[in-house]
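Subgroup meeting minutes
Present: P.N., E.W., G.H.
Scribe: E.W.

1. P.N. recapped why we're keeping a running log of single-chain structure predictions: easier to compare across weeks, and new members can see raw inputs and outputs side by side.
2. G.H. added today's entry (186 aa).
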Amino acid sequence: MKSLWRTAWLTTILLVCSPAVGLADQTDQRLDELFHTLQTSHDSDQLSEAETSIWEIWYDSGDEDVDTLMLEASQLAATGDLAAAEDMYARIIQLAPNFSEGWNRRATIRFYRQDYDGSMDDIEQTLKLEPRHFGALWGLGMILGLQQDYQRAIYAFEKLLEIKPNAQDARPRIKLLKEALVKQAV
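Output recorded in log:
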């Protein structure tokens, strides 16, 4: 049942983040305005549209071959073949080492395979290439929380909120992490 839920959830995430048309990546000039919208708007439709546009830009490497491999890797992940998806993302990283979303997607797969150290390595690279990558910051906070590194997990979620103040689950997670930090200190 847990595997079925995970596959369904992963499929939903992958569908939301389907590839866009056009030349783009984390260096796309449109990102600055979209991030400004994320940080300043209070309109839920506008926020949703900005976030979707950011994911579309991030997902598009600007290289047709890499984009095709990204789609194939997403399909492998959606069917639950996480090992094959990880291998495909490794190939993408080899072909496009400056494409942050290749690193982020492999980090996600590694997270689901419970390879937290590998996921952390990929998150680090993702954030070097795109420091505003709120998905990578969320993953970082989750891993640090699982590793009971509560202070650093709180910091990751606080950084996420600086970039994306409307991140709905960040504040409750920070609250839980602060409670766990207090219990840890006792």
